[in-house]
Design brief:
Shape: globular
Largest sheet: none
Strand content: under 5%
CATH architecture of the largest domain: Orthogonal Bundle
CATH topology of the largest domain: Rna Polymerase Sigma Factor, Chain: A
Distance between the termini: 32 Å
Helix content: over 70%
Number of helices: 8
Oligomer: single chain
CATH superfamily of the largest domain: RNA polymerase sigma factor, region 2, helix turn helix motif
CATH class of the largest domain: Mainly Alpha
Order of helices and strands: HHHHHHHH
Radius of gyration: 18 Å
Length: 190
C-alpha cells in the first residue's frame, strides 16, 4: 500500500473544506489516514475483514460528523477515537451473535531492507504477538493497544473508554503480564 502524506497546513485546509461539505477534501483526508485507521482497527478487533469493515464505518461516521468537528484536536486523533468506538461497537455486536470462532491472522512481513531470515523472524514474532493480543479481552486489549502502540496518556484512555485512570492502569498491567506470559509460552514451544 502506497503511503500518502499531507502536510499539516494542507491538512488544516482539507479539514476546513471537508467541514463545509467538500467531498474531495474529505477523500484526501481518507487517503492520508486510511492505513493508520485500518491498522488501529486491526489491532483492536484482531481480524482483517472485520478491521476493514470497522475502518470503512469509522470514515463514514467521520464524514457524517465533519460539520461538528471542532478541530481542537488533530484530525488523526479524532479518527483514532472514532475508530476505537466503531471497533467496540462491532465487537459488541459480534459477541451478541457469536457463531464462529475468530480466524487466525496471517501477515506478510514488510520486506523493506529485511533479509529473508529477519523477515521470517519478524513474521513469526508478529504472528505470536497478534495471537497473544487476540486472546486478551476487548477492554484489556484496547488499553494495551492505545497505550503501548499509540502512546495515549492514561487519562485520555480512561476518558475515552469510560473507566477510571486506576482501571486503565490495572488493565494495562494485566494485559502486559498476560502478553508476557503468552509470548514466553509460545517462545518455549519453538
Amino acid at each position: 500500500m502506497a503511503s500518502y502524506e499531507v502536510r499539516p497546513r494542507e491538512e488544516d485546509d482539507l479539514v476546513a473544506d471537508a467541514r463545509n461539505g467538500d467531498r474531495e477534501s474529505f477523500a484526501e483526508l481518507v487517503r492520508a489516514h486510511q492505513h493508520e485507521v485500518f491498522t488501529l482497527a486491526l489491532r483492536i478487533v484482531s481480524e482483517r475483514e472485520l478491521a476493514a469493515d470497522v475502518a470503512q464505518e469509522a470514515f463514514v461516521r467521520a464524514w457524517r460528523a465533519m460539520p461538528g468537528f471542532r478541530a481542537d484536536a488533530r484530525f488523526s486523533t479524532w479518527m483514532h477515537r472514532i475508530t476505537v468506538n466503531t471497533a467496540f461497537t462491532h465487537a459488541a455486536r459480534r459477541r451478541r451473535r457469536r457463531a464462529e470462532p475468530l480466524q487466525d491472522l496471517h501477515h506478510e512481513p514488510e520486506a523493506d531492507g529485511l533479509t529473508p531470515e529477519r523477515a521470517g523472524e519478524s513474521a513469526a514474532v508478529r504472528s505470536d504477538l497478534e495471537a497473544a493480543l487476540g486472546s486478551l479481552s476487548d477492554g484489556v486489549r484496547a488499553v494495551v493497544v492505545l497505550k503501548d502502540v499509540y502512546d495515549w496518556p492514561h487519562a485520555d484512555i480512561a476518558e475515552h473508554l469510560g473507566i477510571s485512570v486506576t482501571a486503565t492502569k490495572v488493565r494495562l498491567h494485566r494485559g502486559r503480564r498476560a502478553l508476557r506470559d503468552l509470548l514466553w509460552d509460545l517462545g518455549e514451544g519453538r
